[in-house]
Automatic annotation (TrEMBL):
EC number of this enzyme: 3.6.1.22
Needed cofactors: Zn(2+); Mg(2+)
SUPFAM superfamilies: Nudix
Protein name: NAD(+) diphosphatase
Organism ancestry: Archaea, Methanobacteriati, Methanobacteriota, Stenosarchaea group, Methanomicrobia
Catalytic activity: a 5'-end NAD(+)-phospho-ribonucleoside in mRNA + H2O = a 5'-end phospho-adenosine-phospho-ribonucleoside in mRNA + beta-nicotinamide D-ribonucleotide + 2 H(+)
Native species: Methanomethylovorans hollandica (strain DSM 15978 / NBRC 107637 / DMS1)
Residue span, Nudix hydrolase domain: 152-277
Amino acid sequence: MCQEMPFANDELDFTYPLPSYFEHYPSCYIYVYNGKVVANSADLSDSPKILHDCSQEMRTKKVVQYAGALGEKLCYAIGLESEDRVPDGMQLLFLRDLIGQIDEKILAVAGRAVQLIEFDLTSRICGRCGTLTETLEDRGKKCPRCDLLIYPRISPAIIVLVMKEDEVLLARSSHFRPDMYSIIAGFVEPGETLEHAVKREVMEEVGLKVKNIRYFASQPWPFPNSLMIGFIADYEEGEIKVDGVEIIDAGWFRRDELPNVPGKVSISGHLIDWFASMKEK
Ligand SMILES: [Zn+2]
C-alpha cells in the first residue's frame, strides 16, 4: 500500500549525523530553489534527472543539507541563491510535477531536500530575539544569545475516512474543482492527540461524532512541511451539517456510486481506494 504513496519511502537511510561507514561513499546533489528542484532539460516525456553527480560550487555554498543515502550514494541538498544560478542546460521543476515521473526513492529524497533547504533559509535568525543562529551537529540551530533551539518544522495533519455501514463520508471543499470530493482532513492543534484532532475536525467540518478511530498509514507531504496521518473511523451519531464556506457539500456514498475523488498520489486516494476495494472481502 505505502510503496505507491509518493514521498513515503521507509527504505531510505536518513541516519544523521552520518555514521562513519558512510564516509567514503560518493555524493550526489539536488539543487533547490523556492520549493522547486533543478532538473536536466531533456524532453519531459523522459524521466527528469534531478540527481547531479558533481558540484564544483558545493564547498562555497552556505546552504547545504545532507538529505539521505540512496543506496551507496550520499545525497546533499544545495540551496540556490537565485533563479539565475540554475546551471546551464537545466530547469526548475515543482516537486508536485515530479510525482510519478521519477523513481520513488529519489522523489522521497527530493521532498526532504526541499524541506531541509527551506528550514535552513528560514532559521538563520532567532525568532525570539533576532540574533543570527548557529548550526548544531545534529542539524538543529541554536541562538547563541537566548539559547533557543530550532529544528526542521513538521506540521502534523490528520486525514480520516469515516464509514457508516457500507457508505463513506465524502466532502467537497470550496477550493476543490467543482466535481471533486474527498475525505476530512485538518492540522493538529497544539495540545491535541491525533485522535482528538480526528474527532474535532469531523465535528467542525460536518457536525458528526465518530468512534473506533484506527491508524491507517502516514505520508510526508512537503507542501511545504506536512505529515499526513491517515485514520479510519466509524460514524457514531449526528446529522451532516456543513458550514457552506470551507466545506460546501458532504454526504454518504456507496462504493459503487463514488464521485470524483483524489487519485493515489495522496493518502486520501489510498484511503478511498481501500474502502472501494473492500467489496471483494
Ligand atoms: Zn535568540
